[in-house]
User: Fold these one by one.
Assistant:
Number 1:
Amino acid sequence: MSEIQGKVVIITGASSGLGEATAHRLAKAGAKLVLGARREERLQSLRDDIVEQGGEAIYRVTDVTDREQVEALAEAAKEAYGRIDVLINNAGLMPLSPLDQLKVDEWEQMVDVNIKGVLYGVAAVLPTMREQHAGHIINLSSVAGHVVFPSAAVYCATKYAVKALSEGIRQEGGEEIRSTNISPGAVATELTSTISDEETAKGVNELYEMAIDADAIARAIVYAIEQPGDVDVNELIIRPTKQP
Ligand code: NDP
């Protein structure tokens, strides 16, 4: 039997892109999914697709910038399935722009979703994972958590923070909590649609012509989860071969 069969997996930002692709992969492998994001129609239709294909999933509308909503997502997992095996902190946004434009509202949004959202996720599941003496937290960082790109100072700062947090979870998690930091390069999703600066959007969209499919990242996440319990896959970097 696969190591994924029967595992209860929470995915934030499940309504599109990497979250959605990962939900499909994990459902096929027998996971019980708890899907969170803000757009209810998307979550509903993803849940329906999964169930139609013989999988198990529930959803709960969740804004990860709201601590109580993230706690409620974790509670929904326990109510429906009795435990939480994996949290995939995937929700994120990338409104890139040069610092001089002072798009401070967008900086705050990135800090709120990309960092605080991840922290709220950790806080919502850690006590349950400690009680179970087992759990796995998977964070979506980025190649931008390893290298700073032009017009991406704040986004990169948030993804460096996520990488640091993943390592902290690994160190403090001990034998009970597995920690995986996933760092994708360019992947074709809706992520670039949050860029409000036209010139930056143009440059990024040109770069994203070589983007790979979201399923490439879903496969990496499946790999991390399906390892035996004493194997902790700490870091995966997945780039398109064409990415410089
Ligand atoms: P998408 O834009 O397709 O997906 C982002 C998801 O995050 C959506 O489901 C969105 O759902 C959700 N989200 C955004 N804000 C919130 C919020 N406040 N509360 C809850 N959910 C929220 O992009 P990707 O799939 O590409 O992004 C997933 C992750 O992967 C992000 O963390 C991103 O930084 C990371 N990443 C992506 C790369 C890429 O090239 N695509 C490269 C490296 C990392 P909704 O709007 O319904 O709330």
Number 2:
Amino acid sequence: MTVRNLVLVGFMGTGKSTIGKKLAERLHWRFIDADAAIEANQGSSITEIFRLQGEAYFRKVESQVLAGVLTGACQVVATGGGAVLAQENRDCMLANSFVVGLKASAEAIIDRVSQDTNRPLLQGNLEERVHTLLESRKTAYDFAHVTIDTTALTVEQIVEEIVGRMS
Ligand code: S3P
């Protein structure tokens, strides 16, 4: 496989966007946030897409946008936490990218996502929603080439760890 892109996968709040931006700077690659690309494609926010068209529609657009993005090269792509659920997306990522899974403790995730209350899948009791979704996605990120626990590491440490694992 020729590695053309680096793709970050992981549950919400594991640090995909924060780390992806720093990683792109470090590699001198372009940073793409897949959720932002979906919003640009639809001219609408993730929240509004979920509210007006529903999750199934969002997942369809997510697959299309991701496939389009991954035709490019030298990009660090932060995916949405549910992008790994579709086999076609996993295949597409593995076809030409180095896939890095990020994970964190439930406590760290809850703490981080509580800063942004807009996520459609985390409405209601936050702790309960995180635990339920984490349980249902227990093995969803295991297909990644490497997995890094971000709970107790700094962004700089994580970036260097990923760069080291790439070579
Ligand atoms: C989702 C995660 C979100 C976003 C959407 C659905 C998920 O992205 O794609 O709300 O299913 O886990 P982040 O992981 O960037 O929050």
